[in-house]
């Protein structure tokens, strides 16, 4: 059987930074070449970052991207890497607009492409056929679908090339690849992480490999981009469903693997499939053992996704540091621990802002957190700032509760204005769901690290992180008391969350049904919940949509995050 | 030629309120019946409201909508309106999901439908073929496209039925309708207003009528829904391009018109077209002169769009009143005038919040505005609330400027918490574009009436509104001084906007190129602007995306509004 040494590079692109991303790819090519690879693939849109959103409708951006691909091919050649076949994902265009209606509409003028670079030139191109337009994806909005398939012949084997969603669709390009009789199916991806995604992705790759009796090589990008986190987890599976190589999650990585590929055949090509024959690269010299990374426990995966999402938001946007209000409660403690893991405790600023309702326990829990983690810590009592509002505007009740949260939010923003810190807002998904937060108060901030983490999972991750520390003989970051005490917003005397909300076990379960699974009120009740509680909770969810629209972004880790994943009206009167 | 009396009803649905919207339709049917109409059409999704967004993925919502259509047919019959043929738009489902990838994705299970109600039953249904997925539309995300056409035969004529986007596409369903030889093409729509939309819509309707030598009847909904305003402007055009009837914009209206329609022929139907024969209604009795409304001047159209958008947000969400910070400047003056026009001055609360930097002129301009409009007016000097922040947190520079704006925003929110007012935020599109605002300060609020109005248009509308008042012998609402003085945020001594920003004539022109037309930096410079100014402005636009994401919604009146119309990343490093 012919041999092929394949390299897959998980790069972490910065959106729009074509020159910087190209440099990452050249670096991966250099390392792949040193490892004796014949062919290197990087992820979908690795040259531009993903998702490019409506930049796809900006002609000049597409022209730049187009030139960047041509320049990359030349640069690889100039660096003595021209022998290596490099497959790179990027946007291309502008093309004739896809006709879609009124004149002002940003109709698609771009394609989502893979280019094959060899000997200093773009030798072949493939355009994604299937454009996901569900969940967080808007690709049908911005791209023109391709309709031609591509098979590369090199070193006596045929390699078919597809992009991400193409692999998911039954009867899609994969079926035609089978007719073309390729020995290797190369799939480049920008596939965002969510919980248990590996329980979907790996079986899919395996199924396609077995169905087509073909080796399937799947390469994904890595890194955070606004509300998405890409986890890598690139993998190669053979036609018997065996994993031949697998890259670790969360990190940039070059995976190199030797493949025995079925020889190219002279099967006539189906319609709309073309074959490009590439000059042979040097034969593989060295035997190689490739890595098979083992994915971690789901809590570790989630933790790493949150850390990477926060890290990349801070670094890619150039913030020197972050600032967090530490209340002594579990949410802010978890966020501080995440921030320290993401960028180091010396770039984390915690501020305790006690009010007259803050318990002594809260203050000491915040102190303990600061000591455990070692971030910069200061205390600013808010009474002197709160009182003038109460007196001048005669505030009582909810208004008086909210003003405390808002004074804290404003104080953080003011400290951010003075020092350039990114303000982290510490609301969890449960709070966001029911609007249990003060807009422009505790919800103020540029990034929300745990906005997709429901309350029960907040506790679970806190316990996991502490245990992880213990297992490494480190100080557990999160005070036990912050985990174990009843949660409270501490905006009035002796308040607890459960004065207002159902127990979190019930609340999170109802939210899972109503928000994540998008069930209607009747269907939620049919699951066995108290009807009055369901009405109460679903009404809160509906009525707080306006707040969520004004909320900070944060990393998606579930199958249904707030933001572009869940698009619902603010003005909405249910028919019940 | 056979005669048909057609009624088109512009209703104003509330999203999700199936029962209330059905009652609107029954009322329109009663009036249409009294006017002797044979057939009544209401707009696309008139039964549910539009856009329903991801409610389309909630099975229980679709089931409810389905039942609501059946119930509406029966209700019409019960009210003695069963003879009238009623065409109504609504979502329907759930159907088998359109296969679109991963398991958690809200794949489409709904169709965007028109149902034909007659004699107490749903007699026929049509599903929209072409699903707009550009600009503010996400229909390919949520709907399964239809592929069968429908022709209704009644009173000896054939009526073809399509939905909105179907009309826009060359070679789409319209071409097949031509083959089916129908005499009347009925199009139901939910087509949002934007500036000069009538300059696109009417020529399109006319072109289709002439192309197909068919009468085209176009009915649109009316009203505000979050960031969209539907303007009505329903129209009937004959095969010679003559307007036979046209409804006024902005108001609920029943348009009734007598049509002489080509008789039904026995042309064989093309594939995928079916004909439903409806029992004949009573013959038309009375001669009728139908209205041809004349659209207003563009400034009046824009004004009315802003008023209706604000009015419906307030009313559909049940706010008793609105509150506005009146600074003496033009933006807040325009918002106050809009609010008074929308809901009456007695439901508008204006608060002047002078600081040490507020000029005497600003205070007196605010006083004059209050006197002109007659809203509830109070003054709250902010110094006592600002000083504690400055002292405790040692604020200087930008932090000290921002804290003033934030104290004002918090004060408004506190007053809102006390009294239930909706807080209006008064930022214009130019400010939003370049981030010339304080997040959680002047940008705080639930609705942003002029967020899609650039600064030059702010002045133009202010002048227009004053002249309109003068022409009606009313007091011009906006103080002349607010219009004529140089704009200033008044956050430091003698500040004006032009200390920081280019002149508004230049700035708005660059923003039109970069934001509205989505040109790249080079292409903007090529229009003749100073390169350094272009770099400065485009960088401000890119860097303030995070603020816009957290901004309030407001009515779209341009071809490219911020929000779902323009989707760009926050984390973004341009390649220049």
Oligomer state of the chains in this structure: homodimer
Strand content of chain A is 15-25%
Number of strands of chain A: 19
Largest sheet of chain A: 7 strands, mixed
Q: What class do helices, strands and sheet pairing of chain A give? A: alpha/beta
- Approximate shape of chain A: elongated
Strand order of the largest sheet of chain A: 13-12-9-8-7-6-15
Radius of gyration of chain A: 26 Å
Taking pLDDT < 50 over at least 5 consecutive residues as the criterion, the unreliable ranges of chain A are 101-106
Our count of helices of chain A gives 18
Task: Describe the model.
- Two copies of one chain form a homodimer.
- By secondary structure, chain A is of the alpha/beta class.
- Helices cover 37% and strands 18% of the residues of chain A.
- The first copy, chain A, contains 18 helices and 19 strands.
- In chain A, the strands form four sheets. Chain A has a seven-stranded mixed β-sheet with strand order 13-12-9-8-7-6-15.
- In chain A, helix 10 packs across helix 11.
- Chains A and B meet through helix 1, helix 2, helix 7, helix 10 and helix 11 of A and helix 1, helix 2, helix 7, helix 10 and helix 11 of B.
